[in-house]
Amino acid sequence: MKKMQLSIFANIALVLLELIVFNVEYQADGNNIFIYYTNDSNLLALVSGILYLLFGMVAVSRNRTQGIISSWMVKKYTGMIPMAVRLLRFTATSCLMVTFTVVLTVLGPEKGYHHEFLEETRFITHFMGPMISFGSFCFLENEVRLPKYAPKIVLGVTALYAVVLIILNVTGKVYGPYSFLHVLEHPIYVSVFWSIVIIGGAYVIAAMIWKLYNRTKIK
Q: pTM of this prediction?
């Protein structure tokens, strides 16, 4: 079976899991779910997975489609996933792995690994989502090289999240949601330290994924 077909199956699984998560989480907490980096990264995974499926399924069904919209897309489509979609998949995968790493090194020791990796929707958002996205992106979706600036996108996204949440914590509109974001309870150097660790760590993780993806690319 071709890698494209396998990647489509992987992204279908990813999208279905993410839809389950957001249905459950949104019913429970409404818009408050978006203060969590975990949920934001999983939302990116959902959107990027849908876009990948849209273009990927057109690619594998060329010359075998009869629908008006799909036929129009086939005529306009070159057969390659657009770089913008690949970069979104890269960003989502990197952010998911940041989530996985933070849970593994910070939240797991604080609250217990069973609680953080296996209970409720965290089994998907902290474990299954990151693993499926990472495996599919790095080993099944690697048709072309990603540009050198790709890791900087993840750096920017994570820095933006940190800045917004720090401001919301300082103004008292949000508490946390993670212990290292309790900026009013720590000395300033602690907040600076954690900001450097998380944002810098996100860049390192993104750079490693970028390197792995480009090393295992198909062509």
A: 0.88
